[in-house]
Predict the 3D structure of the following.
Amino acid sequence: MTDIRDDLHDVAQAVADLAKEAAYVAIGVGVLEFQRAQARGHEFAGARKLICGRAKACDETVAQVFKAVDANMDPIVALLPEQAQAVVRRTRDELRSRLRFSA
């Protein structure tokens, strides 16, 4: 009878050891995946920062273009009749609103 108990004890110990190893593996995989997710988050944050910087540079370039156009067009527009000036200004304002930009 002691042989069966010893065998049962050995089997139970083996099952417990196997379960413990499986738990360690599961925890290890979870930690690795968490670290991987953190690294991806940092990569995305860097990419977002880069994109925002480029968008800001683009906005600044558009502002410079509008200033240059206004500087060159204002003297010409001033020579036009009032109604034509209004049309030109309305067109300019609509273009800016479509670009979501206001200078």
Residues 2-78 form the longest helix (77 residues).
